[in-house]
Amino acid sequence: MATQSQVLLEYLPKSEGLLPKWQLVVATIAVFNTIQNFATLKLTRRLYTGVPSASITALQARTFAVWTLTSAVVRGYAAYNINNKTIYDMALLTYLIAFGHFTSEICFFRTAKINLPVLSPVIVSTASLIWMLRQYDFYVAP
Q: CA 44 to CA 124: how far, in whole Å?
């Protein structure tokens, strides 16, 4: 009889290396972030500390939730199809968009200040971008 950990391992991506598993981890975290954005404004307001709290609306949080869910789907799909060039490229672009968004909110629009809630997605998007670019030829045949 299989143990619980053996059963869970069956659901992990089968492709070689850690990048597919990382994609799954990030996608899973994004699903939880999506739920949080639909449920409350509290954590979203911690991201955008450069504007009055009242200017962060439920509509903005739901829009952010839909974007986050979309990126979770793309990254989750990439976890299981990491060798597909189109899917790999789409996942890579989700990190570029996230990096661009948070960097612009910090540096240009000044709606976000450097704090842990903002640094987390900046670090994840940056590390993921670098990792995916460096491993491109390994996962996607030229």
A: 17
